[in-house]
Design goal:
Layout: H1 9-20, H2 36-42, H3 45-50, H4 67-70, E1 75-77, E2 83-86, E3 89-94, E4 103-111, E5 122-134, E6 137-142, E7 147-148, H5 153-162, E8 166-172, E9 184-187, H6 198-206, E10 211-225, E11 228-238, E12 266-276, E13 296-301, E14 311-315, E15 336-340, H7 346-357, H8 360-364, E16 372-376, E17 391-396, E18 405-406, E19 409-412, E20 417-426, H9 427-433, H10 443-446, E21 448-450, E22 453-455, H11 466-469, H12 479-497, H13 505-526, H14 541-544, H15 547-553, H16 584-594, H17 602-611, H18 624-627, H19 649-669, H20 680-700, E23 706-708, E24 721-723, H21 726-741, H22 750-753, H23 771-786, H24 789-797, H25 813-824, H26 827-830, H27 836-855, H28 862-885, H29 890-908
Parallel strand pairs: 7-13, 15-16, 15-17, 17-20
Antiparallel strand pairs: 1-2, 2-3, 3-9, 4-5, 4-12, 5-6, 6-8, 10-11, 11-12, 13-14, 18-20, 19-20, 21-22, 23-24
Helix pairs in contact: 7-13, 9-12, 12-13, 12-19, 12-20, 19-20, 20-23, 23-27, 25-28, 27-29, 28-29
Protein name: Zinc-dependent metalloprotease
Domain EcxA zinc-binding: 505-829
Signal peptide: 1-21
């Protein structure tokens, strides 16, 4: 058989043995044996070996090993995607029916660095994804749910061709198909890559190229059940070296390397990867209404060209169905369950639970009993409630204050159904809330070094989240951090009055009430509710001073507002301090989202529910953009604010100014006591200035302000945009002038300032308290609002919104500029020396004039620039006349001379058009 020489020796031997073997006696004539050469010529070697009885088919070159061989010695955790573990190795089994079938893929960060926004217990979002096979390669693909065609099949095909999915990961098959189940096996170590994109956030924070180190990453734990498979990966991030600092400092400060880790070149991040089952039939979606503030999943429906705006918005809500559909009050089939993390200190668990269960009152109003339940994670639990199977409230620690609490959720974009939620509360919030415990934190943790001086960081300083850096819509909630600042100020005032003693049971109860309010707010987010910054307008000042009324009805229309604490000014009656019960808006929003409605009348019923917001007290709604988020959206409605209280925001601003002055007076009058916190009195001064810094916008919005309503066309009666009354605009201008621009209210005793020490245990300890810098921060915030291009634009446009007969009495841009300039430079008319605080204010005003004169920014209306030049020319003449009069101190004369020179140069400079 010379042909056998062309075959591999093992195959040739098998063929030779087969040809020599006697045929079995089957009772039938034996078929003539095919010549070996014919067999060899008609089939490849693998096929030839398979034809031989008892032969083992060798694998194809490069083919995966058998399933059983790869998983030998491994233990399997059965579930949606079975997970195999063998020591440090892990594999994911993909059932045959789960290939190309959508599921929810999400990643949560259970452990992190502990500073600058890199905190533990964070959700990063998720995608509808699927496993897709190409040969022996398995792809994890995120499906594109932003563009759909809901009605037309041809449109669906066009959308699929027009918009791409995204590849999240790819891995070769680790084994051949399972011989019976036909399932696939992949090595789970592909999850050691940076699928969430955390390295982008690291680069933003540190400006260093940290990347995942697969060789030193491992799986902490895995778990699987029929609805969810999770793997927690401990990812090592590293950078080869920390670069040396530049010899010449750049104009923009360089962030320092990590400070919270032993070695700044290395740290670990724990990802909880969730593969979550989606129902074959999505929950029935419910469309959003602009009059009710609910989060939504939005997409472009390109299958219907009848709609000019193809955007569709499905509100976010949990799947909640009655066990007894016909009963007026029924328990749900599946309640919304929140797990209290085992790391929550025992003394706070009752307040956290109370904040969660408060929402059951709203669900009872629409027929659900015990819609929300709370469970405690056992202290010895070996499972992580950061997985997608447990909505949780978690406790985190950080080296800086950062945000104090956040309540994100994950939803199915096909329907808006909420699938998971994890509220994070920072232990720093409780430290921040107890003003007398701040000395335990580094100075940098309680104040921020900004261009404004020594002021606590506010909304504008919040660290961006990973989702926002990756271009995803990421609503920001800063309520808990700001509520902690409110609590610190309130305790400052009450302690200065002698009404609460540091460390007393009353102080503890005060902080516990704050915690309950924060939890109520964040739980509201996880139920689907957005912020409502008109909620604080519900009560009159008389109602706020009525303790019985506030205890029964709360302080506002909604816990989803950033409600200020109700602190009575001197001579007023004290109502409840905290808002610890739901408001009418909260009941109404839950009704819109969760009330069981007949399918055939649902649209009409929802329209009736939403329309109540146009007429019923307490149901007014305004979101973050209405309140102001920066840029074009500066917040033009003075009735839409963060951290105000009562139906008269301008009166609230005046009251907070009065409270700050009272606090400063009392603190200065009270001598230091041996053993007290050495930074307490220093913080009280800063907290008072921060109140003014935060509320100055409340007054500033009146000038050039427009009242807004969300009424739909045909509602009748109310205009959607209406200019603020002239008298109120002028009252706000006068309040800013008398309260902030004059320096009479900001005098402190020298013997008091000299006792305000620093924490000598800290490297970044600061120095003498900079009163001038604190005041200037508040004053520049007021100037920036009054001199902004958007304020100018609205003032110039206001004549278009009133009848011709009313236009002569309108507040004009010229009036605002003239009032400001006369207020800021009043000494030029009255004569006399100008003190340092006023000189600082005048310099900042002059700097803004110079920018407008020389750079001519394009965002400013031309009329605003013309008026700026007019009033700058007038100021030049007044400065020249003042200098000619003489009789000033050296400092005042130098200031006036420098101001005149700088202004004259700007007026005569070549204008650079922006």
């Amino acid at each position: 058989m010379p042909e056998l020489a062309r075959l591999p020796s093992a195959v040739a031997l098998l063929l030779l043995l087969g040809a020599c073997a006697a045929p079995q006696n089957t009772g039938k004539p034996a078929a003539p044996a095919a010549p070996a050469a014919a067999v060899a010529a008609s089939a490849p070697a693998s096929a030839a070996s398979a034809a031989v009885p008892g032969a083992v088919r060798p694998p194809e070159p490069g083919a995966p090993r058998p399933f059983a061989e790869v998983t030998r010695g491994a233990k399997v955790d059965e579930g949606l995607f079975p997970i195999w573990r063998n020591n440090e190795k892990a594999w994911i089994e993909i059932p045959k029916d789960m290939l190309d079938k959508p599921f929810m893929f999400s990643v949560n960060v259970s452990r992190s660095v502990g500073e600058r926004g890199l905190y533990a217990s964070q959700m990063t979002g998720g995608d509808v994804a699927e496993f897709h096979r190409i040969g022996n390669q398995i792809q994890l693909v995120a499906l594109n749910t932003k563009y759909r065609a809901t009605d037309d099949q041809g449109g669906r095909r066009a959308v699929e061709q027009g918009f791409s999915p995204s590849l999240l990961g790819s891995v070769p098959m680790a084994a051949a198909e399972h011989p019976e189940r036909k399932s696939l096996l992949i090595d789970a170590s592909f999850l050691f890559s940076d699928i969430p994109g955390y390295s982008t956030l690291l680069e933003y924070v540190y400006r260093l190229p940290f990347g995942p180190d697969r060789g030193n990453s491992y799986f902490e734990s895995t778990r699987a059940d029929p609805a969810l498979s999770t793997l927690t990966a401990r990812i090592h991030f590293a950078t080869p070296r920390i670069p040396a600092p530049p010899l010449v400092m750049p104009p923009v400060p360089i962030p320092s390397p990590p400070q919270a880790t032993p070695d700044p070149r290395s740290f670990f991040i724990s990802y909880v990867y969730n593969f979550q089952k989606l129902t074959d039939e999505p929950m029935a979606p419910r469309l959003a209404d602009p009059r009710v503030g609910l989060f939504s999943d939005s997409f472009f429906d390109l299958g219907n060209d009848q709609h000019i705006n193809p955007r569709v918005h499905y509100i976010n809500r949990w799947r909640l169905e009655k066990k007894e559909p016909e009963a007026a009050l029924s328990e749900p089939v599946t309640p919304i369950t929140y797990w209290l993390d085992k790391n929550i200190p025992a003394k706070y668990r009752a307040s956290v639970e109370a904040g969660i269960l408060e929402w059951n009152k709203a669900f009872e109003g629409i027929g659900f009993k015990n819609a929300i339940v709370v469970k405690q994670q056992p202290d010895d639990a070996d499972w992580d409630d950061m997985d997608a199977a447990h909505a949780s409230v978690r406790w985190l620690a950080s080296s800086d204050v950062g945000f104090a609490a956040i309540g994100p959720h994950l939803s199915d974009p096909r329907s808006g159904e909420i699938l998971d939620a994890d509220i994070s509360i920072s232990e720093a919030m409780l430290r921040s809330g107890r003003e007398f415990a701040h000395s335990e934190a580094p100075q940098a943790a309680t104040t921020a070094t900004t261009a404004f001086g020594e002021l606590p960081a506010g909304d504008s300083k919040r660290m961006p989240t990973l989702s926002s850096l990756l271009g995803r819509n990421d609503p920001v909630c800063n309520y808990a951090q700001e509520a902690a600042g409110e609590t610190a100020f309130a305790l400052d005032v009450l302690e200065a009055r002698g009404e609460i003693e540091p460390g007393s049971p009353e102080a503890e109860a005060f902080v516990q009430q704050m915690l309950k309010g924060v939890v109520m707010h964040e739980v509201g987010h996880t139920l689907g509710l957005m912020h409502n910054f008109k909620g604080s307008l519900l009560l009159t000042q008389a109602q706020l001073e009525n303790k019985g009324y506030t205890e029964a009805n709360g302080l506002s229309g909604s816990v989803m507002d950033y409600n200020a604490l109700n602190i009575a000014a001197h001579g007023e009656s004290q109502g409840s301090y905290h808002d610890t019960t739901l408001g009418p808006y909260d009941y109404w929003a839950i009704e819109y989202a969760y009330k069981t409605l007949p399918k055939e009348t649902e649209a009409a019923d929802l329209a009736k529910i939403a329309k109540r917001g146009e007429t019923e007290p307490g149901l007014a709604y305004a979101d973050d953009i209405d309140a102001g988020v920066g840029g074009y959206y500066d917040g033009m409605d003075p009735m839409v604010n963060r951290f105000d209280l009562g139906n008269d925001p301008l009166a609230f601003f005046k009251r907070r100014l009065q409270l700050s002055r009272e606090l400063w007076t009392r603190v200065q009058a009270k001598p230091p006591v041996p053993g007290e916190d050495p930074l307490r009195r220093r913080r009280a001064i800063v907290d008072g200035f921060f109140q003014l810094f935060r509320t100055v916008d409340v007054a500033g919005k009146y000038v050039g302000g427009m009242y807004t309503q969300r009424d739909l066309p045909g509602a009748g009666g109310r205009p959607n945009f209406k200019p603020v009354e002239n008298a109120r605009q002028r009252e706000a201008l006068q309040a800013i002038d008398a309260g902030l621009f004059r320096s009479d209210s900001f005098r402190f005793k020298p013997e008091f300032l000299s006792t305000l020490t620093v924490d000598y245990r800290e490297f970044n300890r600061g120095g003498p308290l900079n009163i001038a810098g604190l005041l200037l921060a508040v004053q520049t915030a007021a100037m920036d609002r009054l001199m902004s291009p958007l304020t100018a634009m609205r003032l110039l446009d206001m004549p278009n919104y009133v009848p011709p007969a009313q236009r002569k009495s309108l507040v004009s841009l010229s009036e605002v500029y003239d009032t400001m300039q006369r207020s800021i430079w009043s000494e030029l008319k009255t004569g006399g020396d100008i003190d340092r605080l006023r000189r600082n204010l005048q310099r900042e005003h002059l700097r803004r004039l110079q920018i407008l004169l020389v750079k001519s920014p394009g965002v400013f209306p031309p009329d605003a620039l013309s008026l700026t030049r007019l009033y700058a020319t007038r100021l030049e003449g007044e400065l020249r006349a003042a200098l000619a009069r003489g009789g000033y101190s050296v400092e005042t004369r130098a200031h006036l001379a420098e101001s005149l020179t700088g202004l004259s140069e700007a007026l005569r400079a070549t204008v650079v058009k922006g």
